[in-house]
# Entry
Amino acid sequence: MRTVILGSIIALQLVSPAAAADPEKVKLGLNNASHEFSRCASFFFMVSIALENSKAMELAAKYKTVSDQALEYALQTGAVAGLLKEAVTSRFETDFLSMKDKIGGNTSNVSILNKEHMEPCTATMQNPDAVMERWVAEIENR
# Structure
């Protein structure tokens, strides 16, 4: 999976019209994509904890795997954007703590987060290339 996302980042840098005009726009777009991936990593991690607390260990492990994958995407895109690993993991932690506050520290309230994050984060993880392309295009069009 790591090779796939890195290849996609490199291809995006090479073929993007934004890259030809301004490589900094590609970096800015990838910075935003990194933040989206880290937010989803936090969300899926919170869901995995909620499932562990309800003793659904097998399903919790699957969500933890997706969280790990999302964090890896965040780290890779962040690195290309010039972010330090510590910046990306700080985003993850900040988003996680914000989500924890939103559910009152009680994972039984995770449906509050599901309503906001499940659909967009599932789409993000199903097509990470589209996330990067969308963010780069959005920056390019500003």
User: Anything to note?
Assistant: The two ends are 31 Å apart (CA to CA).
